[in-house]
TrEMBL record, chain A:
Keywords: ATP-binding, Cell membrane, Membrane, Nucleotide-binding, Transport. One of its GO terms (molecular function) is ATP hydrolysis activity. InterPro entries: AAA+_ATPase (IPR003593), ABC_SmlMolc_Importer (IPR050093), ABC_transporter-like_ATP-bd (IPR003439), ABC_transporter-like_CS (IPR017871), Mo/tungstate-bd_C_term_dom (IPR008995), P-loop_NTPase (IPR027417). It comes from Craterilacuibacter sinensis. This is ATP-binding cassette domain-containing protein. The keyword Isomerase does not apply. Pfam families: ABC_tran.
Automatic annotation (TrEMBL), chain B:
InterPro entries: MetI-like, MetI-like_sf. Keywords: Cell inner membrane, Cell membrane, Membrane, Transmembrane, Transmembrane helix, Transport. It is found in: Cell inner membrane; Cell membrane. It is a multi-pass membrane protein. One of its GO terms (cellular component) is plasma membrane. This is ABC transporter permease subunit.
Length: 342, 255
């Protein structure tokens, strides 16, 4: 089932908050993550898709039919909520079977299917329990089973992991992704955790103030961010201002660096972007783009160190990652310096 | 130490009248003394033989039960719409309307009933249905408030959203999700309604007819007779109230 948004707009009454002119398309079975700062409109977009809020302009089209004006219960879109939203008065098995019951599936088949789904998320033996007797991670797995059990046409995940401890988050993340692929469910994931988005999504839409800033694969967003906002939101980086001083050369005020300046004319102001893993610690003396200075802060993270390095004359440190922090110099290969509009 | 002393004296202040009434109901004579003299169960036997008391007791039970039934039908949808759908302006109006019976002195309400229902067009003053209606008006705010608090506390709106995405129509969500999850607060709220209805005196006294007086109204007359009889009649009301509050406590404990 493909899902597409065509110039979707929505505003909460009396505010300018909402989404504006959002166009996105999801291929069948694709998982797209909506990320962005709070208030960027990602949850609004999700709730519009579910039909939990209504009154948008433009079209939301699922498998060829326009969802506008269709009530929630007719949309057949499964949803997983941040706070699980399991029904406390029903058993785990009855929770999973609720969607099937609403669809009119008879009791025997319903129980069988629900039990299968529970087995699939590894909770088969807890079928008779009440939600309150489960841990947060278990509850969210029940919620996942419930959202998938009635074979919905699409799946919506609203910050599904943010209420959980870090230790189970990664595990459940993999399980959600695995089941989503197994069921081939076209999925929208809302998250404020960019790492979650990078790890799970086929494509990511970055929203800011209700608009889509960039829509692409995780690699595209990380390696080719369209602007500084995207670059800052996805991954860690060093971003600083510089001036083009010739073809293939920029000046940061304290160092002249070789890089691809494209069609930019000398004198033009730019922002340079370097990802931490591309900074080389203690390069040889003859290395290109070598800068001397000192480490101002080092964070030991086990398999690597993440450090702030202040080149001589600089006001703002560079962020680097390496097996061990540099003693007195760093270097960046020209192809790893990306220029953005200032 | 000081706090203990205060709470102890308060306890005494609360419990002493009840104890005295209990003692009095078994006393033979009680005139101008701290405690009654002699012991007897005659007052309870007299009470049992007094037709007007028995009838009043039954009337009180009927009115209480009817108030509970009608309140259930009214308050669950009312509380739901208060929390849910109602727009800000309507919400304020509904809140005002439901809280007004609490704020307005009951006697005002009683005079209103007398004025309106003592006319040729609506000569219903003194009828049981009107009595029930009056009790519903009085008790409705309490049950509504209990339900509203529970709806908010349990975040039932979230559960309803989940049910909706799973294909439940509004009516299925209401009866399948909202009502079952409200049963604890509904039960304890209803016990409160019953207790309020059974003990209600002010309004009932103004609008009851001779045939369908409620227990507290008849009780007042007992005070003009023998002290022991009055005490015994009061103990019966007390017993009812205790049963009600015990049920309430048990219900909320279970929830």
């Amino acid at each position: 089932m493909s899902l597409s948004f065509e110039q979707v707009g929505f505003q909460y009454r009396g505010t300018s908050i909402g989404v504006h002119d959002v166009s996105l398309s999801l291929a069948s079975g694709e998982l797209v993550a909506l990320i962005g700062p709070s208030g960027s409109g990602k949850t609004t977009l999700l709730r519009l898709t579910a039909g939990l809020i209504s009154g948008h302009s433009g079209r939301i089209v699922l498998d060829g039919r326009d969802l506008s004006g269709m009530p929630v219960h007719e949309r057949h879109i499964g949803m997983m909520f941040q706070h699980y939203a399991l029904f406390p008065h029903l058993t785990v098995l009855e929770n999973v079977g609720y969607g099937l019951k609403m669809a009119g599936v008879e009791a025997g088949a319903r129980r069988k299917k629900s039990q299968e789904m529970l087995d699939l998320v590894g909770l088969g033996q807890l079928a008779g329990r009440r939600p309150a007797q489960l841990s947060g991670g278990q509850q969210q797995r029940v919620a996942l089973a419930r959202a998938l059990a009635y074979s919905p046409q699409a799946l919506l995940l609203d910050e599904p992991l943010s209420a959980l401890d870090a230790s189970i988050r990664g595990q459940l993340r993999d399980q959600i992704r695995q089941l989503q692929q197994q069921f081939g469910a076209t999925t929208l994931l809302v998250t404020h955790d960019q790492e979650e988005a990078l790890a799970m999504a086929d494509r990511i839409a970055l929203l800011d103030q209700g608009r889509v800033l960039q829509y692409g694969t995780p690699t595209e967003l990380y390696e080719n961010p369209l602007n500084e906002t995207v670059a800052r939101f996805v991954g860690l980086s060093t971003i600083c201002t510089a001036t083009v001083c010739g073809e293939g050369e920029i000046d940061t005020g304290y160092a002249r660096l070789r890089c691809d300046t494209g069609a930019r004319a000398p004198g033009e102001q730019v922002k340079l972007l370097v990802r931490p893993e591309h900074i080389e610690a203690d390069p040889p003396l003859f290395a290109v783009n070598r800068m001397e200075g000192h480490v101002t802060l080092n964070r030991y993270l086990g398999s690597f160190n993440r450090y702030d390095f202040m080149p001589h004359g600089a006001q703002q440190p560079w962020l680097g990652e390496a097996r061990s922090a540099p003693a007195d110099a760093i270097a960046v290969a020209p192809e790893h310096i990306r220029l953005l509009a200032a | 130490m000081f706090i203990r002393l205060v709470s102890l004296s308060y306890m005494l202040y609360l419990v002493l009248p009840i104890v005295l009434i209990l003692v009095g109901s078994f006393g033979e004579t009680w005139v101008n003394a701290l405690l009654p003299e002699g012991s007897t169960t005659q007052w309870y036997l007299e009470l049992w033989e007094d037709r007007s008391f028995i009838r009043a007791f039954v009337t009180s039970l009927i009115v209480g039960a009817a108030s509970c039934a009608i309140n259930t039908l009214l308050c669950v949808p009312l509380a739901y719409s208060l929390v849910h759908g109602a727009k800000q302006k309507n919400r304020f109006a509904t809140r005002l309307l439901t809280l007004l019976p609490v704020a307005v002195p009951t006697i005002t309400l009683g005079f209103g009933y007398i004025l309106v229902f003592n006319t040729d067009a609506m000569p219903w003053l003194g009828s049981t249905p009107l009595l029930i209606a009056a009790h519903v008006v009085l008790t409705l705010p309490y049950l509504t408030q209990a339900l509203v608090t529970d709806l908010r506390h349990q975040r039932l709106d979230r559960l309803e959203e989940a049910a909706a995405t799973l294909g439940a129509r509004p009516i299925q969500r209401f009866f399948g999700i909202i009502v079952p999850n409200l049963r604890a607060s509904l039960l304890s709220g209803l016990v409160m309604v019953a207790a309020l209805s059974i003990g209600e005196f002010q309004l009932s006294n103004l609008i009851v007819g001779f045939q369908n007086r409620t227990y507290p109204v008849v009780l007042l007359q007992a005070f003009y007779g023998a002290t022991g009889f009055a005490c015994a009649a009061t103990v019966i009301l007390l017993l009812l109230a205790t049963v009600a509050s015990l049920t309430s406590t048990l219900a909320s404990k279970k929830a």
